[in-house]
Structures are given as C-alpha cells and as structure tokens.
C-alpha cells in the first residue's frame, strides 16, 4: 500500500500530527519535503526531487523502502498522482485564525518586524488553503480533518487507515489554544475580503467533515463523491467508498422521489491525475426519461447509507 501523504498547510496542527506519526512509525519510515534548504527535508527528496529532478525514481525508492508517511509544506498536486488521493490527508483551519497564527510564528521564529496587516496583505499569505490544495476536491481527500476538531479528526483517520496515531500537541505559540485570536473589526473585514476563496473552501470543508463525522459515529461507511452536473436531461457525478473497492450504488431522486439507481463504474478521465481508486472507474450518470422543468430538485444519495452527495435545482438555462 502507498504511504499516507500529508499535505501540511502551515499552522493547522500539522507539526503535532506529523510528529505523532513519526512516533508511531519510527523516523526511518517517514519522508519529509519542507523545501530544498530545510534541515527537515529527507535525503530521498533532496537526491531525487531537488537534485535529480526525477519524481518517478523518487517514488520507486519510496516504494522499495516501504516508507509509511510522506509530508511537507507542498502543494497537494506535487505527490497526489503518485500516492493516490485516497491516501492523501490534510487539515483545514479557519482562514483568519490560521493566518494570525502564521504571523505570530514568523514574529517568534523568523524575526518578522512588520505589523499584522503588512503580513496578511502579502500575496503568498492570501488564500493560502486554496493555493496549497490546488483544486483537489475536498470530497476526494482520503481524510479531511479540521484543526478545531483535531482529536475527532485523528480518531476518524485512525479508523480509515487502521493506524494507532496518538494525540499530541506541540509547536503551539499560545498557552490557551482553546480561544480564538482577537482581531480588530476593520482587519477582520479586510481579511474576509482578501481570503474569500479560502472562506468558501473552509465552509465547504466543515460540511464535508460533519457528514463524515455523523457517519463515523453511526458506524456507517463514508463515500467520497460529488454531483458534477445537473441539467434538465441528466445528472452526473463520481463516488467511491472510503474503505472498499465495491462500486457505490447511487439513488437518483427528483423532488424527493426515487427515479433510478446507478452504479459508479464509469471512467472519469478528468480525475486520473489524482490517481483515484478503481483506476478511475468511479463515475455515474442517469439520463431522465423526459426533460424536467425549471426548479426541479434533483438529488444523488448513497443507496446504502442515505449520504447525500448533492442536491440541485434545475435552472432555465440547463
């Protein structure tokens, strides 16, 4: 099996997580990529990624040496095609709290002398979550955790990967981590405007997390899936189980009434760069017997559990 690939977004409890993983697997079984100049970056990465510039040779060595964990401040797209999106995990955090935490980190550790606005207005710190995740659908990540729900996220991750990674808290800049940073209202407004993409992403991530959390507590399997498009004539999307290769059966509902069932077995070429399960045969589509009128509610629901993958109203242009 491929190692777990942890997309480490700065100041999302990632240091605590990766150090817990290192304690679980041992330092010889983890690989780090924290830039070519970082002392934490592993020799395998230096040799084959930054010097040799041969990702496939890098992956051959990772596989041959049976490494268990790959982590770094890197875009998800750097390694997801090698590892597979089902083995890729990350944590999200409220965008404003995250950027304030990163600012404090730069002040403490790198001697940053500017004020908070001078920091968060820099292009590299705007919409940081979205830029690092690189358009990978949140529903596709093998595990999507929340920093604010770290222990619960870790419990679900351990269940997903049959691991025993223990909770630990480190690299925290404040004694009381339960309280949010207090930020002047004018800065809050500017931050929300600058990071609207991240705010939308985070809000969506919370919804995905809550759905998975509910299923986890009920002992039901989680399905990675979305509805890609709904028109007056059809619905299409993709789906796969988190814990098995069996194709997902999807019930299609129109205004709450079941009109058909589809198995997610069609090829989705657009997702192949994510190296998804079932070699990409994860798509579903249902063509309606007759076009449905504007305003019709069309839903895709996992037949086994009732998990809603998406619900949309048909628009006139569709």
In short:
This protein is an alpha/beta fold and 318 residues long. Helices cover 33% and strands 22% of the residues.
Question: How does this model look, in words?
Answer:
With 318 residues, the protein is of the alpha/beta class. Helices cover 33% and strands 22% of the residues. It contains ten helices and 13 strands. The strands form three sheets. It has a five-stranded parallel β-sheet with strand order 2-3-1-4-5, with helices on both faces. It has a four-stranded antiparallel β-sheet with strand order 6-7-11-10, with no helix packed on it. Strands 9-8-12-13 form a four-stranded antiparallel β-sheet, with no helix packed on it. A hairpin with a 2-residue loop joins strand 8 and strand 9. The termini are far apart.
Which series of helices and strands comes N to C? EHEHHEHEHHHEHHHEEEEEEEE
Alpha-beta classification: alpha/beta
What is the 3D shape?
Answer: globular
End-to-end Cα distance, whole Å, is 42 Å
Any idea what the radius of gyration is? Answer: 21 Å
Average pLDDT works out at: 94
Q: Count all strands and give the number.
A: 13
Question: In what order do the strands lie side by side in the largest sheet?
Answer: 2-3-1-4-5
Largest sheet: 5 strands, parallel
List the helices and strands and how they pair.
Elements (H helix, E strand, L loop, with lengths): L3 E4 L6 H12 L4 E4 L9 H9 L3 H10 L4 E4 L7 H4 L4 E5 L2 H16 L5 H5 L7 H6 L9 E4 L3 H12 L23 H10 L1 H22 L5 E8 L3 E8 L7 E6 L2 E7 L2 E2 L13 E7 L9 E6 L5 E6 L5
Parallel strand pairs: 1-3, 1-4, 2-3, 4-5
Antiparallel strand pairs: 6-7, 7-11, 8-9, 8-12, 10-11, 12-13
Helix pairs in contact: 2-3
């Amino acid at each position: 099996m491929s190692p777990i690939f942890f997309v480490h977004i700065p100041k999302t409890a990632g240091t605590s997580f990766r150090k817990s993983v290192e304690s679980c697997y041992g330092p010889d079984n983890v690989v780090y990529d924290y830039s070519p100049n970082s002392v934490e970056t592993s020799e395998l990465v230096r040799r084959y990624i930054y010097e040799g510039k041969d990702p496939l040779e890098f992956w051959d060595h990772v596989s041959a040496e049976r490494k268990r964990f790959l982590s770094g401040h890197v875009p998800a797209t750097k390694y997801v095609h090698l590892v597979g999106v089902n083995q890729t995990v990350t944590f999200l955090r409220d965008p404003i709290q995250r950027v304030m935490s990163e600012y404090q980190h730069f002040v403490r550790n790198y001697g940053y002398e500017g004020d908070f606005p001078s920091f968060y207005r820099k292009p590299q710190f705007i919409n940081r979550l979205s830029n690092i995740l690189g358009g990978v659908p949140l529903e596709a990540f093998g595990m999507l955790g929340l920093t604010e729900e770290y222990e619960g996220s870790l419990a679900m991750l351990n269940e997903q990967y049959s691991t025993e990674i223990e909770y630990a808290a480190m690299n925290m800049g404040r004694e009381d981590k339960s309280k949010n940073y207090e930020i002047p209202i004018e800065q809050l407004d500017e931050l929300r405007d600058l990071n609207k993409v991240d705010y939308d992403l985070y809000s969506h991530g919370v919804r995905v997390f809550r759905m998975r959390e509910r299923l986890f507590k009920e002992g039901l399997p989680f399905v990675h899936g979305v509805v890609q498009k709904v028109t007056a004539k059809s619905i299409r999307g993709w789906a796969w189980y988190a814990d098995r290769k069996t194709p997902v059966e999807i019930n299609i509902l129109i205004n709450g009434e079941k009109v058909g069932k589809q198995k997610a077995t069609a090829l989705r070429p657009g997702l192949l760069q994510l190296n998804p399960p079932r070699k990409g045969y994860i798509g579903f589509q249902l063509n309606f017997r007759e076009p449905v009128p504007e305003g019709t509610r069309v839903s895709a629901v996992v037949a086994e559990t009732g998990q809603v993958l998406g619900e949309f109203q048909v628009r006139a242009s569709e």
